[in-house]
Design a protein that fits this description.
Layout lengths: L1 H17 L15 E3 L11 E6 L5 E5 L7 H7 L8 E2 L12 H13 L4 E7 L6 H21 L7 E7 L9 H7 L1 E7 L1
Parallel strand pairs: 5-6
Antiparallel strand pairs: 1-6, 2-3, 4-7, 5-7
Helix pairs in contact: 3-4
Length: 189
């Protein structure tokens, strides 16, 4: 009986020693993000000239009407404060009825300012894998883009960008996480 207990204890210790905690993945630079192709309906738009990898590794599409500005230049020029962020529920890319007026205001602004463009930047809270959150941020940005397009805005004036959870606060409170699940509207003039 004692031999069985010692054998089980030894096997448990060996199994415990070989399992360990996995290392937490390194958070990449926030500029190493996913740049979406803007409005798509199953196929790539013919307004693309090329796809370029910028020096920082971020993917940026070149379009006739956007030029070939780097991601940093576009974001640096952007006005982040013109519109409130569009907030989302946990693990959702559906636009709540309470958030639609913000998108309507953005569409009205774009329709009355034909030279203005908009980057829709999707964000997530820290829960979930980095890959999943980048994809969720992209879905949120595309959902907002699709809504704006239904308001008569030319899709070539819109871009999507996913930050995923790259700017999220780890261990944030529920209230903080609710504010991180968003799409920010960056106006380029």
């Amino acid at each position: 009986m004692f031999k069985k207990i010692v054998l089980i204890a030894t096997a448990s210790l060996i199994a415990f020693a070989f399992t360990g905690c996995s290392k937490k993945p390194r958070r990449p630079n926030p500029l190493d993000t996913v740049m979406g192709p803007g409005y798509e309906s199953g196929q790539q738009s013919d307004t693309f000239n090329s796809m370029e990898l910028e020096g920082d590794g971020a993917l940026l599409e070149s379009r006739d009407d956007w030029g070939t500005a780097s991601l940093e230049d576009l974001i640096a020029r952007a006005d982040r404060n013109m519109f409130s962020p569009v907030l989302f529920q946990f693990d959702s890319s559906a636009i709540a009825p309470t958030e639609r007026p913000t998108l309507q205001n953005a569409a009205d602004f774009l329709n009355s300012n034909p030279n203005a463009k908009l980057i829709l930047e999707g964000h997530c809270d820290w829960r979930g894998t980095q890959e999943y959150n980048l994809a969720l941020g992209d879905r949120r940005a595309k959902s907002a883009l699709d809504y704006i397009v239904t308001m008569g805005v030319d899709p070539s004036r819109l871009k999507t960008l996913s930050q995923g959870d790259l700017k999220a606060i780890e261990g944030a409170t529920s209230a903080q996480m609710a504010q991180e699940r968003k799409v920010e509207l960056l106006v380029i003039r």
